[in-house]
Predict the 3D structure of the following.
Amino acid sequence: MAQFEDVILKSALHSKPKGLTLQYGTAGFRTTAKHLDHVMFRMGLLATLRSKRTKSTIGVMVTASHNPEEDNGVKLIDPMGEMVTPDWEGYATQLANAEQDALCTALNDIIEKESINMSEKASVFIGRDTRPSSESLTQAVLDGVSCLGGESKDYGLVTTPQLHYMVRCRNTHGCYGTDTLQGYYQKLSHAFIELTKNAQNHTDDQKRLLLDGANGIGALKMREMETFFQSALQVALFNDCCSGKLNHLCGADYVKVHQRPPQGMVMDPGQRCCSFDGDADRIVYYFNDSAGCFHLLDGDKIATLISTYLKELITQAGLNLQIAVVQTAYANGSSTRYLEDIMKVTVCCTKTGVKHLHHAAQEFDIGVYFEANGHGTVLFSKQAEEQIQELAQNPNVSDEKKCAAKLLKNTVNLINQATGDAISDMLVIEAVLAVRGMTVQEWDSIYTDLPNRQLKVKVSDRCVIDTTDAERRAVTPAGLQDTIDTLVKKYAKARAFVRPSGTEDVVRVYAEADTQESADALAHEVCLAVYNLAGGVGEVPKPLK
Ligand code: NG1
Ligand code: ZN
């Protein structure tokens, strides 16, 4: 194993604690940062193999997104900026869990299974979030890449979607954009400025947006981007990463799950606000009304706003393109009903995790996908993009059609099609509101969310829960689904489901019903059922106050 000499030497510096096993989950590996050095080194190795196999640049992002600051994580990015395929997720798990003396055998297995030509060149892009542990963990990734002779480019501090974007730009040889931060800022800000030129009465008041940066990388990158906007947008930044702790009492996940504003933000009634998560791939909007009542506009409301806008433009442009919205079981029932019954848009439901949504969205001319937590984007098929381009340049069409086509063209340029991107999504939303002359209150009133509650239960082994039907029904343990069905029947307009989390060691419980009291009571009762039937540990779940 002469080719692994360097691996053997360096892996000793990134050794695996005996017996520790981890799983490549919903968004890569995620756990307490102190258990991750060997995983990072090995993901450097694996990314190099993936690069040799695909003859393309592969990305490695060091982040644990919305998890607490003490955690960290890593995920691989495939050539078009997508998540890696299930086969390679499997390899990642095998490689991460191989004991120290079995590492070279595990590497060899992958090389043989994938018939990898080891003399092929390899190129790996690396990025990291602002966690204190991210810098040294990045070094471990770089070590892994160099051991197998790969070339690496370290982007340093970037948002997760920025790294996805760089990978896609590199592998499309500049067709998608330039693989630099400057290139990213220029492409997005140019499209945004072009779009908002179409806004009537776009006053300074309407341009004002409060942004909670979750004390993370998104805040730093928004600061960098500010100068590119030429006053088309005025962002007031809170939780800006200067002093507060990452994701602590702030950020998109906190706001969505707790259904309350982040700490540290001063909100005037009616003021439009939004929150990024810790690596800036999720966004949610919100405002307080004049009675002090909090209104959340989550991923479902974002998908509705964007798909309605795109549908209108497509009709105006006279294009025959099919538009669909992809959701998960967490989508609010009201949003699904509105999209299907009122908007007459195709709606699909997939398992949790953007890789599933992304995949489903690729099946349509225009696929809008959002998780309720605010992670999502829009995908345009090659054919859809070509039709839009052609129409925008065609001198023989009516002004109305041309105008719609130009708006569509700039919207395509504003969207990060590699993955859900909080910065890009925010700009799309701001542009849509401006172009349509719509307030956040008008957007909110498109439909009314069914009251809902998300809770979690600790069990000794969350794998005892197996699900089907896009995670809406539990197959095991025996009796759990029947119990949930019986509980749901007690409440009006109710729905509930449970699934093991892919990023935390918990079982997630979701319930919605006609009133908040009913949603809370149902969620609590389902938690008790999980606790009793799926091996709950620790305190018995208490009812919400
Ligand atoms: P898990 O922990 O598997 O529920 C969470 C989110 C996912 C996705 C991933 C990756 C919820 C209910 N789940 O996954 O949607 O965003 O994190 O970040 O929001
Ligand atoms: Zn994230």
